[in-house]
Specification:
Organism (chain A): Glycomyces albidus
Strand order of the largest sheet of chain B: 6-7-8-3-9-10
Number of domains of chain A: 4
Number of strands of chain B: 10
Protein name (chain A): FtsX-like permease family protein
Structural class of chain A: alpha+beta
Largest sheet of chain A: 12 strands, mixed
Transmembrane segments (chain A): 259-286, 307-337, 357-379, 400-422, 434-464, 485-508, 718-740, 761-787, 807-828
Radius of gyration of chain A: 34 Å
Oligomer: heterodimer
Membrane topology (chain A): Multi-pass membrane protein
Number of helices of chain A: 23
Number of strands of chain A: 25
Subcellular location (chain A): Cell membrane
């Protein structure tokens, strides 16, 4: 029986190759995802391990130093006397303290250096070399000297010999002379695109530890055990081996690769999911073609389970071969992606290819999916009655009732899961509930596609029916709703996913635009790019802007995001020099009380936030600031809920307690009749000495806010490309089967005068209709999906719903192109059909 | 009674609708070569109903396919009316079949997606032309199909389907209708209906029909029966009766093939 199976497979090479391709693609992406993650982890670990070469032990504060900011509280530091103690431990050859943190350095354009501003600042000491390699110049010897990384040179436009201005949140600006440039070991400019600047230890401490003689960590060389060191110092400090510390450090860096890995795993799983339909379809086709052969096998005595076995064996062979090929290609893709991630996001990190055991999951997925998908067609095949061998194969269309009811039920289950997942009813399982709900809903909708195909195909076909062969193609497309539907499903799922995402992005843009246009009464906005820290500017600058003759009003915003508490709960606080004016510019309104002349102990809060905390007008609430001050503030105003003004507002006199007592944003209302561009230029001049912020007009502001989403949207289109490849294979499969099944019909048509061109057109129209059907359905489902998510996020601020018309048009056009491409081979086959053979009776 | 010589081709005075002159057709090559037609010359008179008969493998279907431009000849020429079809390319042949020839096959004669009426109008639709409505109405009436026009083929009996196929074959008023075993799949009653219609279309409409059949009863409806054996014409009966046809066929079984070694 196996022999017969294998021989049979050899005679259907083309179809098997096409089917395998779907499995190959799915396995490839899953494997690549695993390999990317493992490779990046290994590579990053390798680099970090390099940095820790020769470091035998690391002493850090017992408390997690991850919270270390420019204003690091001294509790998170290792004092200088501990360093002295460590140096004195037996077996310690050398020990150095590390001071590092975020520093703002101003580039030659007057703005902060670095894409991910601010820059990493640290103290250059004996241990700095090894991992860091001086390329030019020398190490800093005086407090007014710095050495900078090669990436810093690239990003800042400054070079050796130039003067750079730097400051931190706790230290004022100072000028430094660049006396050297360093690179990282392996001739790299940076680890992950970051910019670095190194000072003398004393200067680094002035900037980063508020001048205290303290360190973020102590690096120890020598063969003293960690226990020996720990015994010598207090239990407030943790002692790790160099290896342990290096692993811990690597974890943070590998996170970027992990995210990429998840994205590709997602793509891979979608590809696998879509492949399932293709495999089911292909095996249904193979079984249909083999109906006589299978019936003959049954007639000469093969048992039903032997027939099932025969079909499943075929699936297993395809699954194994395709998965192995997919795994192989996945290794190549994973390696390529790792190189790409390394060069674009990791500053040219040397890639150490790693094929983890988890990559074998891709094999299991590929083989498992293929065999499982073949079960239904296999069981159907076994039901072929032996007499079918003697009869003409006829496949009467089956009623669609059962499949439709099942589809409705499954869609409902998926829909409920989606809604539950989105409405936080599943708690921590929300995301997985949502995702599995989407998956289940797709299965359900796929089951519904046959019933939907009738009206939709008729409608789409009506457009195509301008020629008679087009009309025949349309009729053929509607002929076997199940097959048309399952073929279109592959495209449907992918288009639904990308449309869903495009819809969300469009809705977000619409929301932003709406907010800006209808709620923001300002013409110009002063703010910085959100980086690792909150960009601010000097209060004096704000005053200068307010004083400009053509400025009618300025709304300003101070914020406290670290460590403030309202009634014992961590809560961000806001303040404005003139809350009344600011609220006016944000179109905020007062529900109860008054904000005019907010008293020093006054507090304004929006309705729902007040409700959440059970606070009412006139209540007194304890507010603790980051500097430790606690004030009893009285709620003097309740604001109407509005996205731009929601939150807790304190009086301007409280600003001095903020971590950063500087304004973050200013919203400028230009006087009636004044030229906005001219005012923008004036503000730009004032901001010349403010490295962290820029002034933009409303249109640029919206573009800035939504620009990153466009990049996201663009990268998601990869998914579409992947699905298109699989969809093309599916459509080719179906069309080839149609041509085979309708050989006699085609023969008849050709005999009574249909030209080859007409035959080609007929097949092409069928193909385009199938693809358009998939795309239209996918767009509809995607919009539904996007709408559901938008509704769920309405409370979170996604208030507008918008359709991505540009993308919808692109997807429809893509569907037509897919249809045209997929039809090429089958149409040629139909056109070349030998009329005589086609109409021969036996 | 066995014939001493192969019959000479009948040269009729009436205009001939289809003419084959010295047609040869072989399949395969070398040892496996089968010569299906050996130097066949025959004319089919316009407005006549001719049956082609012969045992299995005699070449009767091949002859019909060559005459209808579905198959090519190795040697010799075929004319439809005055038009030589030998050597025409696929496009020209397709157009010729569309405009000048009607087909009736044994089965798979109709497109399942189209209604009976759409099937009848199929050749005109393919050509992008408008069929003559009066003529179509007349055929439909003659074939008693007016109640069935909106039905799909699957909703029609075998006899009805074949009548629809007859209507389609005649719809463009072709120069000649080729019928390949048109009653092969039908019961006796439906067969008789179809054959009576073919007869009537010759008598009333002056249609030319060439029918391949192995049923002597069907052949008896024809004006003339041409017998093929081993790729050659071995008999030519005019005004045949079923009995005469049976007698002739019986003759083949005992007779030594004539000129069987002709090159």
């Amino acid at each position: 029986m196996l022999r017969a199976t294998l021989k049979g497979m050899a005679s259907r090479k083309a179809r098997l190759v096409l089917t395998s391709l779907a499995v190959v693609l799915g396995t490839m992406f899953v494997a690549a995802a695993m390999i990317l993650t493992a490779t990046m982890e290994k590579s990053v670990t390798g680099v970090i391990a390099d940095a820790f070469t020769g470091i035998d032990a690391v002493v850090t504060p017992a408390e997690d130093p991850a919270a270390a900011q420019g204003n690091t509280p001294s509790a998170n530091l290792v004092p200088g006397d501990v360093l002295e103690t460590v140096r004195g431990v037996d077996g310690v050859d050398a020990a150095d303290g590390d001071v590092s943190g975020q520093v703002n350095a101003i580039g030659d354009d007057g703005k902060l250096v670095g894409t991910f501003a601010p820059t990493i600042g640290f103290n250059w000491n004996a241990q700095s070399t090894g991992f860091n390699v001086i390329r030019e110049g020398r190490a800093p010897e005086a407090d007014g000297e710095v050495i900078v990384s090669a990436q810093f040179v690239t990003d800042s436009g400054l070079d050796i010999g130039d003067t750079v201005t730097a400051y931190s949140y706790s230290a004022e600006r100072a000028d430094y002379e660049i006396v050297g440039v360093f690179g990282l070991s392996g001739d790299r400019d940076s680890l992950a695109g970051e910019t670095q600047i190194a000072f003398t230890t004393a200067e680094a401490q002035r900037l980063l530890t508020q001048g205290e003689d303290a360190y973020m960590a102590i690096y120890v060389q020598g063969d003293a055990s960690t226990e020996d060191i720990a015994d010598a110092i207090s239990a407030d400090y943790r002692v790790q081996t160099g290896e342990e510390a290096s692993e811990e450090a690597a974890q943070g860096f590998a996170a970027v690769a992990d995210i990429m890995g998840y994205i590709f795993l997602g793509f891979g799983l979608v590809a696998v999911f879509v492949s399932v339909f293709l495999i089911i379809n292909t095996f249904t086709i193979i079984v249909a073609q083999r109906q006589r052969e299978l019936a003959l096998l049954r007639a000469i005595g093969a048992a039903r389970n032997q027939v099932v076995g025969s079909v499943l064996a075929e699936a297993a062979v395809i699954g194994v071969i395709a998965s192995i090929v997919g795994l192989g290609l996945g290794v190549v893709l994973g390696w390529g992606l790792s190189e790409l991630v390394s060069s674009t996001a990791m500053g040219g990190l040397p890639v150490q290819l790693q094929v983890p055991a988890t990559a074998l999951w891709a094999l299991a997925v590929g083989i498992g999916v293929t065999v499982l998908s073949a079960i239904v067609p296999a069981v159907k095949a076994s039901g072929v009655p032996p007499v079918a061998a003697m009869r003409e194969a006829v496949n009467p269309p089956k009623p669609l009732r059962g499949i439709t009811i099942a589809g409705l039920a499954v869609t409902a289950v998926g829909g409920v899961l989606v809604v539950l997942g989105l409405t936080d009813n599943l708690g921590d399982l929300g995301l997985s509930g949502f995702l599995s709900g989407v998956g289940i809903a797709f299965v359900g909708i796929t089951l519904l596609t046959p019933i939907l195909s009738r009206p939709l195909v008729a409608l789409l076909g009506a457009v195509m029916s301008w020629s008679f062969s087009g009309r025949l193609g349309r009729l053929n497309a509607g002929r076997n709703p199940r097959r048309t539907a399952i073929t279109a499903s592959a495209l449907m799922i992918a288009v639904a996913l990308v449309t869903g995402i495009a819809t969300l992005v469009a809705s977000f843009k619409e929301t932003t635009t709406d907010l800006t246009d209808s709620n923001l009464e300002s013409d110009l906005i002063v703010m910085g790019q959100q980086g690792a820290n909150i960009p601010t500017f000097a209060p004096e600058t704000l005053a200068e802007i307010k004083a400009l003759p053509d400025v009618a009003a300025v709304g300003d915003l101070y914020g406290e995001f670290f460590g403030a508490e309202v009634d014992g709960e961590p809560t961000p606080l806001y303040a404005s020099e003139d809350l009344e004016t600011s609220l006016g510019i944000f179109s905020g309104t007062v529900a109860e009380g008054s904000i005019a002349d907010l008293p020093d102990d006054g507090l304004a809060v929006n309705e729902s936030a007040a409700e959440d905390r059970g606070v009412a007008l006139g209540d007194t609430v304890p507010v603790t600031f980051a500097d430790g001050t606690t004030e009893q503030l009285e709620v003097t105003a309740i604001l109407d809920d509005s996205q731009l003004t929601d939150g807790w507002w304190v009086a301007p006199t409280q600003i001095e307690h903020f971590t950063i007592p500087k304004p973050m944003q200013a919203y400028i209302q230009v006087a009636d009749g004044a030229d906005i561009d001219a005012v923008q230029e004036e503000v730009e001049t004032i901001l010349a000495d403010e490295p962290e912020v820029d002034v933009t007009n409303n249109a640029d502001f919206i573009a800035q806010q939504t620009g990153q989403l466009d990049i996201l949207l663009g990268s998601v289109q990869v998914l579409l490309a992947l699905a298109i490849i699989i969809a093309i294979i599916g459509v080719i499969n179906t069309l080839v089967l149609s041509v085979l099944e309708r050989t006699r019909e085609l023969g008849l048509l050709r005999a009574i005068g249909m030209t080859r061109g007409q035959a080609r057109r007929m097949i092409t129209v069928e193909s385009v209709i199938i693809c358009l059907f998939g795309a239209v359905l996918g767009i509809a489902v995607g919009i539904g999906l996007g709408w559901t998510v938008q509704q769920a996020l309405e409370e979170e601020g996604l208030t507008s719903f918008a359709l991505p018309w540009d993308y919808i048009v692109i997807y429809l056009a893509a569907a037509v192109v897919v249809g045209l491409l997929a039809a090429i081979a089958p149409a040629a086959r139909a056109a070349k059909l030998n009329v005589l053979n086609a109409i021969a009776y036996e | 009674m066995p014939l001493a010589n192969p019959p000479a081709p009948q040269i009729t005075r009436t205009r001939s609708a289809v003419t084959a002159s010295n047609v040869w057709r072989a399949y395969g090559s070398g040892e496996a070569q089968v010569v299906a037609l050996r130097d066949v010359s025959v004319q089919f008179a316009s407005g006549a109903f001719t049956a082609i008969m012969g045992p299995s493998g005699s070449g009767k279907s091949t002859l019909m396919h060559c005459l209808a431009g579905l198959d090519t000849t190795d040697r010799g020429t075929v004319h439809i009316g005055e038009t030589p079809i030998t050597g025409l390319n696929d496009k020209a042949l397709t157009k010729l079949r569309r405009d000048k020839i009607g087909f009736i096959f044994q089965q798979f004669n109709l497109l399942p997606t189209l209604t009976a009426e759409e099937n009848i109008l199929l050749p005109a639709s393919i050509a992008g032309a408008k069929a003559d409505p009066e003529w179509i109405a007349r055929i439909i009436a003659t074939l008693d199909l007016s109640q069935r026009l909106t039905h799909k083929p699957t909703e029609l009996s075998g006899g009805q389907q074949q009548r629809v196929a007859c209507a389609r074959a005649l719809a463009t008023r072709p120069e000649v209708v080729f019928a390949d075993e048109p009653t092969g799949n039908l019961d006796t009653r439906s067969s008789a209906e179809v054959l009576r219609f073919l007869r009537k279309s010759v008598d009333d409409f002056g249609q030319t029909i060439v029918m391949v059949t192995h049923d002597p009863g069907a052949a008896a409806y024809a004006d003339r029966v041409v017998f093929l054996a081993d790729g050659q014409i071995v008999e030519d009966l005019h005004r045949p009766t079923a009995d005469a046809v049976i007698d002739t066929m019986r003759g083949f079984e005992t007779r030594v093939p004539l000129a069987g070694e002709a090159r």
